Amino acid sequence: MHTSLKQALQNGQTLLACNFYNLETLQGVLQAAAEMQRPIILQLTASSIEYMGLQTAVNMARTAIKEAGAQAWLHLDHAASPELVLRCLEAGFDSVMIDASDRPFEENLAVTQKVVAMARPFGALVEAELGYVAKLGQSTEKTGFTEPHEAAQFVEQSGVDLLAVAIGSAHGFYKQTPRLDIERLKAIRQATPAALVLHGSSGIPVEQIRAAINAGIQKINLATEIKNIFMQTLKKTLKTTDEIDLRKVFPAARQEVTQLVKNKMEALDL
Ligand code: 13P
Ligand code: ZN
Ligand code: NA
Questions:
Q1: 77 a catalytic residue
Q2: Could you tell me the pTM of the whole model?
């Protein structure tokens, strides 16, 4: 039976949300979900959509989900514009993220309201972000943690289903071990009914992610570690072989993606 993402979140389920970049990373992630018999979110960024083509990526994901026998939803990660959101809604995404977190509160709110209205007829959920979660290459020194009272106002006035919070995580790997502000997270949890999202999970020690889950995080975004294990494994394989049959070269990398995601699911009890 297919549960909606909304239902899963309302049931209090915490979900791992894994980015994919090609067929192999897609299958690697889905194999983990199938073996663990755990539901999962698959995510695409604008650059992955551009790389694969929207219809190719969506059709491939839908077919791969069925073939793997996994329960998975398809999510648009970090959309910068309502135009991309609309294309993805029309392509049947289960949820979409509009990310205007780099704009002032009122502008972020206005574009998010627009996307919520846009998504409603499609029955898709909407995620937005409030506060500064450093993107790849951006300064991790700068902070702009989510304020609980602003989160409350933002969720109430925008009607978003999911809210990405800035509590000390950043995209990509970390130079220094991050320290998540769990007390702030608890206060945000108290202040708003939206499902809370942790971005930048790659490189965060498992105990801290567990603490974040206990304090109310329901969606855990994982990207860089997937890319990294795939490419590191691929490079290692290529160093030891002259094989030109790519179907013999990719499986080891795909398998390591599966192992990574299984390990995360196990360690985080997802
Ligand atoms: P990482 O690349 O740090 O895992 O962050 C992923 C993410 O937040 C995707 O939205
Ligand atoms: Zn993110
Ligand atoms: Na990270």
A1: yes
A2: 0.98
